[in-house]
Design brief:
It contains 8 helices and 8 strands, in the order βαβαααβαβαβββαβα. The chain has 215 residues and is α/β, with parallel strands linked by helices. Helix 2 packs across helix 3, helix 4 (61-72) packs parallel to helix 5 and helix 6 (117-125) crosses helix 7 (165-188). The structure holds adenosine monophosphate. Adenosine monophosphate (AMP) binds at residues 9, 31-32, 35, 52-53, 56, 58-59, 64, 85-88, 92, 162, 171.
Length: 215
């Protein structure tokens, strides 16, 4: 099962993708995480992606496609994967379909998590992320037990370099202009399930499970 989880930045994609991955015993594949890892490793792709990421704009399709193709070929993705933050352009969605078709696979379901803009800005400004394992916290709603330290791996927890107000506004604009058309692409193919992303994490998770049971 290849499942695509979509939604604007701050919609809770990462959190929900991790839960679904654990629930379905397939890996969560986040292009944001793959790109941050590439930056930490100092790889060529990481260096080329850094400026786009910090500005809140999209990394060019060819770099992201190369990363995702390599990742989906790994053995743990054979039974399936939860794609988090990919595809983000119609060109990426088309290339994903082509890539999967070559391996006689297909996107099984697409879930879009819907949250309004004011709530998104509030969520992202309070967001704290573990630099080591990617776990997500919130200054007010879900602070780590020990300030500055990840509850999961004890790595350092801080604000992401692109979680500032200017970059957030750019990322939201980018979402509207470049990623929202991907929803139309999947809706046209009858593959899209929309889920209300407001409220608690458990409620949203339940709604996603309901949507998947009818997909
Ligand atoms: P995320 O962790 O999903 O919020 O992604 C962080 C940043 O990584 C984005 O603002 C983009 O600069 C870049 N990025 C992640 N996924 C993609 C993608 N599928 N296409 C292009 N850029 C991406």
């Amino acid at each position: 099962m290849i499942l695509v989880l979509m939604g604007p930045p701050g919609a809770g994609k990462g959190t929900q993708a991790a839960r679904l991955a654990a629930d379905m015993s397939i890996p969560q594949v986040s292009t944001g995480d793959l790109l941050r890892e590439a930056r930490r490793d100092g790889s060529d792709i990481g260096k080329r992606a850094a400026g786009y990421m910090d500005a809140g704009t999209l990394v060019p399709d060819d770099l992201v496609i190369a990363l995702i193709e390599r990742r989906l070929e790994q053995g743990d993705c054979k039974p399936g994967a939860i794609l988090d933050g990919f595809p983000r352009t119609v060109a990426q969605a088309i290339q994903l379909d082509d890539m999967l078709e070559r391996g006689q696979r297909q996107v099984g379901a697409v879930v879009s998590i819907m949250v309004n803009e004011d709530e998104i800005v509030e969520r992202i400004l309070g967001r704290l992320t573990c630099g080591q394992c990617g776990a997500v916290f919130h200054r007010l709603i879900k602070p780590p037990a020990v300030a500055g330290q990840c509850d999961v791996c004890e790595g350092g927890v801080s604000s992401r370099s692109d979680d500032n107000e200017d970059a957030i506004r750019t990322r939201l604009q980018t979402y509207t202009n470049q990623t929202a058309p991907v929803l139309d692409y999947y809706a046209g193919a009858g593959r899209l399930e929309k889920v209300d992303g407001t409220g608690g994490m458990d409620d949203v998770f339940e709604r996603i499970q309901d949507a998947l049971s009818v997909a």
